[in-house]
Amino acid sequence: MHFKRVTYLSPCQKGLFVLQAIAILLLLPPVLKAASNDAPIRYLPEAKIFIMETDHTSYVFGINEQNALQNLYWGKKISREDDFSQAHTAETRYPLESQEGMTNEEYAGWGGMRYTEPCLKVTMADGVRDLVLKYVSHQVKGDTLEVLTKDMNYDLFVTLTYQVFPHHDIIRKNTTIENRTKQTVVVESAQSGVWYVPPGVGYRLTYLSGRWAGENQVTQETIHQGKKVLESRRMVTSQQATPWFAIDYHGEANEEYGRVWFGALGWSGNWKIVVEQTPNQQVRVVGGFNDFDFSYQLKPGESLKTPEFYGGYTDQGFGKASRIMHHFELAEILPHRPMPRLRPVSSNSWCATEFAANEENQKQFAAVAAKLGVELLMMDDGWFGARGARKDDHAGLGDWYPDPDKFPNGLKPLIDYVHGLGMEFGLWIEPEMVNPDSNLYRQHPDWVINFPGRPRTQGRNQLMLNLAREDVKEWVFNTFDKLLTENDIKVVKWDMNRHISEPGWPEVPPVEQKEIWVKYVANLYGILDRLRAKHPSIEIESSQSGGGRVDLEFLKRIETMNSSDNGDSFDLQRIGEGYSFVYAPKVTDGSVEDNPRTNGRSTPLKFRFLQGISMGGGLELCCDIRKWPTADLDAAKEMIGYYKVIRRTLQEGDLYRLDSPGDVDISAKEYVAPDGKQAVIFAFRHSQQFLYQAPTIYLRGLDDRALYRLQPIDGKLSEKQRVLSGAYLMNHGLDFKLEGDFDSTSVLFEKVE
Ligand code: DGJ
Is the full-model pTM beyond 0.90? Predict the structure, then answer.
């Protein structure tokens, strides 16, 4: 017979037991204590090492024997602190390099024998152009670390600031450069920081570049010795390059597997990211303000903050790297975080009425749109200016009052009508611009960016207001504050339709003029912040001739963006794929345009709708719905209904890029709801040849053992079973009868409880 031994403790014994347990815990060997320390930032005084940790990554740097900050590691989490030894400058027997020049310095000034891309370059008042930064002190406050450094002689201080976002596997860095000398210091290059991947060669760079109507094309290339510069010199983030990079080892990563280091910069003006492989076979990425035409005077006591640079690492491929960014942006970047409201279905007037918007035609749109289930009416360009001025893009910008011919009683009757139909109202504005043919320009020709006596080159017949000027900044704020106060507007589409030229600022001394690159953008942020603070319920759609101004700093001030001026659904598949590497689907609107408006390519309405919906953000109809036949209106109503059923999953869930539109003649995407209860896939075929069957589509991110009920939107799914396991869907996959040109389908999956 076996007896269970039961021990009974008296209350007094219990107390003793607890005390003993506490004593044992306190006496545990240090290694165990260290392991239980889950503070995201730790400083190890003996080894002089800073450890920053997220759930799955570590970022480590230390103070070396030259009292300089030296990077030690960035990658998958290494929990054992004792594994890291004190930082020590690189050894070199090579006479053309210095030890510090070959060391992975955490924030190197341009000084001594350093030849790689510097983080900071200055000229001191006495002409000295040598900067060697040494550690001074540091402060850890929860998930933030500040490390103060200083030049070896001069009182030029640089604070390196880090923030760790443990559950998002993201670390943010930037710096503050402070002049505590008694004379002006000129900053010639101010970078936010540098990211190092483990030493070695064979890395591959993935980046996004493009053009107007062709944003964010994914490009991959092997990194070799030298530099690859991604940048904007256009005073906006730009369509030409996106401030983002991803680096994988030996090109081994794909959507699901492989080590990927990635980063994104938040700056909506001239930015630069330099991906460099040094002669010492070290890949490093420096990013911050573009130093082209850059010069910033720091007077005594003044400081300059560099843009925030975000970095992350995953060993689960590009798909995971993107999802990390998406969830991070929703939780930590977007206004109204951590849970911005779901984006609405909107109808935009631009593609239908262009500059001819008036009260009557907008009411006509509103009436049709409301019947389709549209939730917001966005009145685009054309509504403002002196009587009859804005009939095209030659006049009107700057005169922000309703054209009395088009809106004899102001905007109120239209807005009331839209509200009466149960919809919200949105309005297009282009605050930073002026047409020479406008009352504003006639009154203030000096308000534009210009060099005296030089041409004022016009882009789309317009000039740029100099927001760096305090009076212009105030005028912009007051003008749009008034507009928002007087009208019940839910969303403003903040457009900007040219890039800079002749970047002069004649009102300030020549040595300060180049500060326009920083001050314009800083004041733009200031205007947006003040408007948002005063009108907390407004939302902003960023438009810069499509997607030319989106980055992590602008994202803090906008809810959504006009993804592209290209309305061709086929082109938009690749544009949308590019965005999804960096930006949360929630912010990329999906536009459905009339056919064949953009490039003459005709695609079926279903293809256009599914493409628009699959972008993941707000769904926008940029069409003349007044002219649609009943069959199209019915189809639109159905698609909008479908979108509303799945939009939380699209906007807040996990995106899986199943098949890239750049690879084969099929593309497929899947979204899985945050709670895993719903999933949806979209599949598109653009050009079937030789009667080849569409390839099988394998789902991802489902629960192997769960059952899912399938609801296809049409008869394209070959599979007849309507309840299937996650294992089947992910391993056996699904086949679709997608045929000919521009065929498409979607299936909704509900987890069976
Ligand atoms: C450019 C935008 O991208 C378009 O959507 C439209 O708003 C026009 N500007 C209006 O001028």
Answer: yes
